[in-house]
Design brief:
ABC_transporter-like_CS, Rossmann fold, binds magnesium ion, 11 helices, binds iron/sulfur cluster, 332 residues, eight-stranded mixed β-sheet, four-stranded antiparallel β-sheet, single chain, alpha/beta, 32% helix
Length: 332
Amino acid sequence: QEKILQVHELKKYFNMGKGSVLQAVDGVSFHVNKGETFGLVGESGCGKSTIGRTIMGLYDKTDGDVLFDGKNVHELNEKERFHFYRSMQMIFQDPYASLNPRSTVKEVISEPMEVHGLYKNKREQLDRVYQLLEEVGLNRDHANRYPHEFSGGQRQRIGIARALALNPNFIIADEPISALDVSVQAQVVNLLKELQVEKGLTFLFIAHDLSMVKQISDRIGVMYLGNMVELTASEELYENPLHPYTQALLSAIPIPDPDIEETRERIILQGELPSPINPPSGCVFRTRCPMAMEVCSMKKPVWQEVGQNHYVACHLYDDTLENKDLTKQLTR
Ligand code: SF4
Ligand code: MG
């Protein structure tokens, strides 16, 4: 399998002034295989959007490396960067905010083509716009209308058409369905899946809960407060979640069967999400972890492979930890 994207020990800190630093992404590593969908999941503020933007080169990195097609995205020259944007595009959560309200759908979709000078001939460009509209389930009659005339789901389709305008092979979808009605979410997910098969696209799919990501992703990485805490294949994550945070996230997904739903144990996390400006020492999850031990406040758990292609950062799975005192369960 070809690793189209490799993220090594990526750190992205933001200087907040007066000496405080927001550790948005604090040493995250993963890769994305060509043609797969990699789901990046975690609550808002965990750093997942920052990772997306740093991969796109919209943010400088603080440390670590991002390689796309073997090339370091933060070391591209102007020409390489221009070319890079044809390969990698982004879809955003709120399609309305990302579409210029004063531009017609035609203008919104043709803009990237014009910037990149794809077509010399206006007619060809317009035909391409029509083709893209059809590919996302809209039609040419929509071309001269304005984004606000469309429903949320349709606007997301326009956003997708725009992202496809340059024929990218990698798409970062940052919560593309979070703002949509549940009934519309499945339609957009299905569209993305169809486009993936037709065009051989690779997706980095960012989401704040696991419910939809399960269906669309081949592998999933779970993030908490700037750290990746678990990563494995989709089915494995659902059948055998190891990290206490993943277990809590999974327990929060409603199950359609009322009998199971009633008897199921829900893991309620205590306390608030700490600030990434002053994250907890040791394991960042320890202030809310039902399994927290003495060691958790002293040592940051290492990122390790505990099963085949199953990675986790948690002292519960650290065999080298022999000090019984340190593994004493904290009472809360
Ligand atoms: Fe919980 Fe400790 Fe594991 Fe962190 S390292 S998830 S606090 S048990
Ligand atoms: Mg976000």
